[in-house]
Every structure is written in structure tokens, then in C-alpha cells.
Amino acid sequence: MPPTSERPPGPDNRVANEAMDRYADGDASAFPILYDAIAPRIEGLVKRRTRDASRIDDIVQQTFERIHRARGTFIRGSDVLSWAFKIARNLCLDLGAQGWRERPAGGGAKDGNDGKDGDAADPIAEAVGEVVDAERIATARETLGRLVRAFRALPEPQQLALELVRVEGFSMAVAAENLGVTLPSLKMSVFRGAAALRAAVLEDAETRGVRGLSAAEKEQLRGIT
Amino acid sequence: MESPERRNRILASIGEIPAPTRRELARRQAWLVISGLLGALALFWVEGGLRATGRPPSLVAWTSLGTSCFVGVGMWFLFTRTRSGHRRGWFVLGVATIAPIVAFVLWRYGLGQLYELASPWPTRPGYRCFAMSVATGGILLFALLLAWRRLDPMSPMATGAAFGAGAGLGSALLIDLWCPVSYLPHLLVGHALPIAFLAAAGAAAGRWMLRTFRRG
């Protein structure tokens, strides 16, 4: 899989944006199309950001209700997913459900886990999915666990920047607008976050005395971070 | 995983919540904003309207022209949104507010010096201009907040602040036609401070008036 920052705009975004445009104009039949196009990604975001699994459905539902209420303000041709992510993130904060450092709802595992949890590492999970050798899968999972721990230790702005740009595949410009920061500031957050992540994982691997990363894994890590 | 039960529940709940379409909203917002503008203009005319009060017409024309340019640029950044539909970030909003204020004060003071009308005027500290600015800008701000009421699920405080600063800049344009004083402390208190005041008031009011609430 290519690094997510190079991911071309997915067809879902186009479908979602067109559906939202129609819905904002009053075409009710466009809402189910919009829902199907963006609901899984909103759910993924909410799972990463909330510690309370029972609230995920509620937050997803409220996100769509708010999109619905504000549909008349949707600017033709703008990015509905970026819009929806900001609403969902605000809801997580408003409802006090934020707290992925404690325990992400997605996997149920805690810090120090084996890396099976956390959709934050989706691209990594997909990347190592190609490896069929059991030992290498186990090693990759350890790497993933270190990466998730290191990610959670990053300052919030860097986490958000990496999440939008590297995990969700937003362009730098859209991510900056989404987070309400300037483009240079966003680029700096992504750069620093990725560098910190890379350094933390490599250092962790050495200090824990576990088997170091192979050259291929290091290359994989560079591609991701 | 996506659950059909949740999908059905959300689709059903959406049908029960009234939400204006673009066309309906545009009509409603146009009425409210035009009413706000007319209200601010009415107050301006009731208080005396355009008053040259010893200022040469060329000075009035130059100050208004300059102020219109600064206010126009500031309002464009404050009222428009980014290509992805988000309100601009706090940094940009701050620059879009402060830069026109600084430019306006320097322009007005500079022209006042040029026409030898910027001499100290201690009997006019600017409180009257402050009150007039807040009143005219407040009418416009209130209309803007009503027009966007419960419609900003993303950044209601930033939107409110942008509306407040924009309304303040608009009122500065009117007060510029009304007030002959170019004394620097007067300009700061009576013309610049109200913009900051309205921006702060807009942020506070926007947080409550513009955000969308959950149902029930």
C-alpha cells in the first residue's frame, strides 16, 4: 500500500460530496448515499477518540443530525468528510467522551498491548497484512504496538495532524483548514510527529532488548511515518 | 462494523428534524442581514448621519475610501469560509481583524496630520463614538447571529468572533463618516476598541447562539 499521504482522492469522497450537495439543495434521496459513503469513516474516527464504546453510536448519530441541521450552510463543492470529522471531533469533546490515551474503544486492549487494537494503525495493519510468515507477523504486531504507544505519547496537535494527513489521507491544505491552523504550522506538526514517532519506535525497540527492526520493517516504517 | 439498525435509526431521526435547504436558508439569511443593515443605517441617520463638521470634503472622501478598502479586505477574510467549508482559523481571523484596525487608525491619523486636524482634543475622549460604534455594530451582529442561529456545528465561537469583528469593521465605516476627530487616543477608544469589543461579544454570543444542540 502506498503511504496514505499519496492516496488519491477516493471515489467515496466524490460520491459523498455530490450527495451532500444534492442533499443541501433539498434532495432527501441523497442522504442514504451520503450516509453509506461516510458513516464507516466517521465511526472509525469516533472509535479512535472515545474511551466509551457505548457512546460511539450516539456520537455517530449526532454527527449526522448536525450535518442534517446545518445542510443549508454547506458550500457547494467543499469537502463533507472534513466537515463531518470536525463535527464528530467536537462532539467527542463536548460529550466528554474523549480519552483514547486511557483505552480506545476499538480494540479493548490497553497500553502495552500487542498492537492489535486501535484503528489509528490501520495503514500499518494493512501494510503488514501482506506478510504471511507467522514470526514476522508477530514481530510486525510488536512494532505496531510500539508505534501505537509512541503515537499516544505525542502532543495532541501532532496526533491530530498525523491522524488527518497520514491515516485519513486528507491533503495538508484541507487538514490545516479542518484543524484551524496555518499550513506551515500543520506541516511542522506532521513533520515533528512523524519524526518523533520514528525515533520513539526505534529507540523503544533497542531499549526493550527485543529484536530490532529489520531493514524491510524500517523501510516500511519510514513509508508510513 | 456498520450496523443496519443504526442506519435505519439515523435515517428515521433525520426525517423528524427540520432543516432548511440552501435556498430556504439563503432567503432567511438575506432578510435578516438586510434588516440588520437597515437598522444600523437608521440609527446612523437618527444620530445625525454624515457630518463633515469642519472637515474638507476631500478629507472625508479620502478617509472613507481608505477605510472602505481596509474594511472590505478584512470582511472578506472574516465572512468567507475556506474551500473545504471551514471557518478560517483563529490566527487568520485575528490578523483579519487587527490589520484593518491598525491600517484604518494610521490612515485616519495620517490624513488628519496632513490636513492639520489631528491636534489634541481632550474634551472628546471617544466615549460617544464608542457607544455609537457598539450600537450600530451590535444591531448588525445581532442580525448575523440570528441569521446563522443553531447552524454552526463546527466552530461557533470563531464564527461569532468573525461576525462581531466584521460588524465592528462595518460600524467603523459609518462612524468614520460621522466623527470629525482624528486625535489618536480618540481613534483608539472610539473607533478601534469597539471592533475588539464586538469581536469578543460575538465570540461569547456565538458559542451559545450558533452551536447546534442535540435533540431532546
Oligomer: heterodimer
Shape of chain B: elongated
Which two chains touch over the largest interface?
A-B, 45 and 42 residues
Task: State the total count of DSSP E strands of chain B.
Answer: 0
Helix content of chain A: 55-70%
Please explain how this structure is put together.
- The complex is a heterodimer of chains A (225) and B (216).
- Chain A is an all-alpha fold.
- Chain A has helices at residues 11-24, 30-49, 56-69, 80-94, 122-128, 134-153, 156-167, 172-179, 183-207, 215-224.
- The radius of gyration of chain A is 18 Å and the shape is elongated.
- The model of chain A is unreliable at 1-11 and 100-124 (pLDDT under 50).
- Chain B is built from seven helices and no strands.
- Chain B has one domain.
- The longest helix of chain B is centred in the last third of the chain and has 26 residues, at 184-209.
- Chain B is an all-alpha fold and 216 residues long.
- Chains A and B meet through α2, α3, α4 and α8 of A and α1, α2 and α4 of B.
Blueprint of the fold:
The complex is a heterodimer of chains A (225) and B (216).
Chain A: H1 11-24, H2 30-49, H3 56-69, H4 80-94, H5 122-128, H6 134-153, H7 156-167, H8 172-179, H9 183-207, H10 215-224
Helix pairs in contact in A: 1-2, 2-3, 2-4, 3-4, 4-8, 6-9, 7-8, 7-9, 8-9
Chain B: H1 4-16, H2 22-46, H3 57-79, H4 90-114, H5 127-147, H6 156-178, H7 184-209
Helix pairs in contact in B: 2-5, 3-4, 3-6, 4-6, 4-7, 5-6, 5-7, 6-7
